Amino acid sequence: MARDGAVSVEELLARREPGRSLEAPFYTSREVFDLDMKLIFHRHWIFVAVEAEIPEAGDYVTVEIGTTSVIVVRDDDMNVAAFHNVCRHRGARMLTEPSGVVGKIVCPYHQWTYELDGSLIHAEHMGAGFDRTCHSLKRVNVRSLAGLLYICLADEPPADFDALAEAMTPYLAPHRLAETKVAASIDLIEEGNWKLTMENNRECYHCATNHPELTVSLFEYGFGFAPDDADTDRAAAMEAYERICAEFETRWTREGVPFAEIDRLHGCATGFRTQRLAIDRAGESQTMDTRSACKRLLGSLSEPRLGGLSFWTQPNAWHHLMADHAVTFSAIPLSPDRTLVRTRWLVHRDAVEGVDYDVDNLTEVWRNTNEQDAALVAIGQKGVSSPAYVPGPYSPYTEGLVEKFCAWYVERLSSALSSTSAETAPRAL
To answer: Can you tell which superkingdom this protein's organism belongs to (predicted)?
Structure first.
């Protein structure tokens, strides 16, 4: 039961007012953070990597989600597999590097050795009666969505990944992400709760004044605007935006690339949204001159002026795919007030650095944007930690997608707590 004067997580969830930000404990409480890790990040499909990071047999990456470490590896049959990074002998962590290449997975403690399919093939001094088949590595659910890799730590993951794949594969397929390579990867620690990271990503209310590099190519109006307070200049800009969007829709139709918005951010376990957006000026890429950063276009694409495909998945990812390159983002909680944001820039696997693309030009927009967002998340965390903070109203025009993220989060956490209520008493904060 809740302590005298304290409020349980269940009570906070029940009294959450739609259209307003969450109460402070959702961003600051260790108890809520632990529940987020257990009931959100250990029960849902989490974006963690791209196939381009493990192109050959034996290539692997390790993923850390709280105290859980996972190996994602390309096995000898060229399939993607995932295992808990825990030896079946005495539990030692086996692979300690973030990425690498192995022929076998060998525990450094007592050299128990596993094939890339997880089967135990060597365990010295265990005796003739020891059955190696009972000690394979523990598998983790893993799915590739057209080259984007998702894992789920639950024994029974949400079944709606197939619905996500059915809807999104036609949008992603022309870019052939499985045939790319990672041109750059940058990790950034944001000094804020993971939900502040995601909320910040789900709106562009802040873009015009905080992201000068991004708004060279990206229209702030693409994420909503209030038409009743537009001055003459803004009204003209919005008219120009609508005209450019119509031009892009004609081009997308001609090129046969899907562009219609799909919004399933709320009401399902694996929430997602996609929409192909117009890019300003040259219209080719999210670069400072809006032209392609890589001469070698992705997949089967032959037209560089295709704008950008925006794709989000709950709870932790967003992606931007253009004709010449793609940028993927994942957010992994580290503590109540620290979040890892990992950004990868993908180009065609045959593109040559220094010939087809320049890394600085390729990464400039999102390197700056990420640093700007990290600063915004940090001041947001400081604000919600103040005794003066109370939930504020979202703009119905520019923050509707923030509301959908929070509604999804409240729904999923409430549902998970309800399903375990017979086992666990309400948690007091």
So the answer is: Bacteria
Total residues found in the chain within this entry: 429
Which of 132, 157, 182 delimits the end of a domain? Answer: 157
Tell me: do 34 and 170 sit in the same domain. yes
Cα distance between residue 91 and residue 112, in whole Å: 11
Report the run of H or E that residue 124 belongs to, with start and end. none
pTM of the model: 0.96
Domain boundary at 157, 174, 204, which?
A: 157
Angle at 284 between CA 234 and CA 215, to 5 degrees: 35
List the one residue out of 75, 143, 142 whose CA is nearest residue 103: 75
What region, left, alpha or beta, does residue 281 occupy, with left being phi > 0 and alpha being psi -120 to 50 degrees? Answer: left
Query: Do 21 and 100 reside in the same domain of the chain?
Result: no
Query: Per 3-state DSSP, what percentage of the chain is helix, strand, and coil (rounded to 5)?
Result: 30, 25, 45
Same domain (yes/no): 39, 52: no
How deeply is 396 buried, as exposed, middle or buried, from its count of CB atoms within 10 A (0-12, 13-18, 19+)?
exposed
> Sign (positive/negative) of CA torsion 253, 256, 257, 258?
positive
Q: What pairs with residue 139 in β-bridges?
A: 83
Structural domain count, the chain: 2
The whole-number pLDDT of residue 239 equals: 86
Residue 71 CA, distance from chain mean position: 18
Between CA 170 and CA 88 the distance in angstroms is 40
Tell me if residue 162 falls in helix, strand or coil.
helix
105-106 β-sheet, strand order: 105-106, 113-114, 120-122
53 shares a domain with 20: no
For residues 116 and 95, is the Cβ–Cβ distance under 8 A? no
Q: Domain range spanning residue 146? A: 46-157
CB 88 within 8 Å of CB 137: yes
Does residue 57 share a domain with residue 14? no
Q: In what order do the strands lie in the sheet with 308-313?
A: 180-190, 338-348, 326-335, 317-321, 308-313, 272-277, 262-264
Q: Are residues 146 and 277 in the same domain?
A: no
Separation of alpha carbons 241 and 288, rounded Å: 19
CATH number, domain containing residue 310: 3.90.380.10
Helix (H/G/I), strand (E/B), else coil: 127: coil
Q: Is 76 helix (H, G, I), strand (E, B) or coil?
A: coil
How confident is the model over 88-108, as pLDDT tens digits?
Answer: 999 999 999 999 999 999 999
Domain match, 25 and 66 both: no
